[in-house]
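Troubleshooting: if your tokenizer reports a length mismatch, compare your output against this known-good record of 142 residues.
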Amino acid sequence: MDSLFNRRSPLDWMPRLRALGARCRVDLVDVDAAVEFAVAAWSMVDLVRHERNLPRSFAQDVKRQCPSLAYMQDIATQRKHGEITRYAPQLKTTNLHGGAFSADFSRDFDVSRLELTTVEGRRVLFIDAMEATIRFWETYFK
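Known-good structure output:
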């Protein structure tokens, strides 16, 4: 198969990635959108690698350039396989934090959100990792 519903290149999938990002921005606790985003963002790695005939090491290279892609890989792999066994994950946990305030409030308040905890114990907001991932792919394709 040379395309998937007329989408032939990784660049053809960027509007979908942006649309999922927009859904995540509107609802900071939309788990389905967040997981779909992670799967789409991580799938871009394989799409680019195959289209440009790049070595398998390309995945490690992009994760060094954009650490948030490692988080997306963990979420996508966990979603697909139910566990991560073939590599050392970067995330220890994912959490839907039910804050005292809605997402309409600023981050200075205890707002509901999706949180990631790295294996080092650092807390990362999914929305921040998502934004970094979008910026990475937009810059990559310039």
